[in-house]
Description:
By secondary structure, the chain is of the alpha+beta class. It is 27% helix and 24% strand. It is built from four helices and five strands, in the order ααββββαβα. It has helices at 9-18, 32-44, 108-119, 132-140, and strands at 47-52, 65-73, 76-86, 91-99, 124-127. A hairpin with a 4-residue loop joins strand 3 (76-86) and strand 4 (91-99). The chain is globular.
Amino acid sequence: MSGLHARPALTHRATDTATPAHAANHGPRGGFARRLRLRILAYRDIEFLSSQVPGIADGAGNGPQQECLLLVHIRKVVGQIHYQTCADCGEGLITGIDIEEPFHSTGLDTRALSHLRSRHPDTTWHSTLTRRTTRGVLRRMRIPAATPAARCTHTVPAPTYRAA
């Protein structure tokens, strides 16, 4: 029941023309509700697809291969994680994290890095990313910055990507 029967007649007519009765109780869908919906979407509807970037490793398949983990939501790529893995050394190097703005602060970056760790369980991960937006997730995931001494000897200089 709407509760309009308890209001004076003049107030009742004035509110009918101004705004719907439910608009006063429910604000625009933003803030906490929007973040919660995006977090649920990031955990339920995002698929991870792996693809190799051609031309980075030599033709024989030796050394690290540049790969890309695509974060896909209903046939649309909403993020990418660029990385190199070397089977010879057991080293992994994250070279780029790019996630669309609506999916920031939803935990999608953490989930994607956890997915990489589960796909390559015997790999020691490092990162070349130093931007403020990626330092937090790398620190939470305990992925150290790559130093020249820690890099794989087979590593091809990594291309730089815009990291978000």
